[in-house]
Amino acid sequence: MTPEQRHACMSHIHSKDTGPERAVRRELWRRGYRFRLHVRALPGSPDIVLGKYRTVLFVNGCFWHGHKGCPKYVLPKSNVAFWREKIARNQERDLLNNQRLETLAWHVVTVWECELDKARFAETMDRIETEIRAGQAAWQAYRERRRWDRVFAREQARLRRLILADVQTELDKRYDIPTGVKKMARRESL
């Protein structure tokens, strides 16, 4: 290809609303899942966001994201160094975005373009559905842990206040501390 032909081909490739992404969205909708698309507030702008299940899906093209061992991932013969570096940057960015999302308690599911061919489509969608349910269960467990952590923290704060009140009562019995000093000590302890 000439550089102009290559440019024309590459300019027609989009990152949103790709064929594989539309196929996954269509099947998820058919199975009763509701979702949002390309939420910019989340790291990496995930392709599909299932908020109720605290799960995000990335539908990755095998070439653009360097799917190892896939026949669709073949480096071009020309400008090899550029493509190798570009795909490595994409993989690094994907890894970083996945880590950020997991830090924010999102369950991340990656779907590869080659997994969506007719022979494996139903199997892949079943795997995605299982992952979505696992994400929901993990989110519920996380919320329950957080709730118990808050209960524990409130209880610890209550016990601390009781101990401080007991110490203050004991000090008042033993020593004759002027009221002004007591108020100043209370202000400093807060």
Question: Would you write up a description of this structure?
Answer:
It is a single chain. With 190 residues, the chain is α+β, with helices and mostly antiparallel strands. It has helices spanning 3-11, 19-30, 80-103, 121-174, 179-189; strands at 36-37, 48-50, 55-60, 107-112. Strands 1-2-3-4 form a four-stranded mixed beta sheet, sandwiched between helices. The longest helix has 54 residues, at 121-174. The chain starts with a helix and ends with a helix. Helix content is 58%, strand content 9%. It has two domains: 3-141, Endonuclease, Chain A (3-Layer(aba) Sandwich), CATH 3.40.960; 146-189.
- Helix proportion range: 55-70%
Radius of gyration: 28 Å
Number of strands: 4
In the CATH hierarchy, what is the architecture of the largest domain at level 2? 3-Layer(aba) Sandwich
| Overall pLDDT metric | 88
For the record, give the distance between the C-alpha atoms at the N and C termini, rounded to a whole number. Answer: 73 Å
Strand content: 5-15%
CATH topology of the largest domain: Endonuclease, Chain A
Instruction: Supply the CATH class of the largest domain.
Output: Alpha Beta
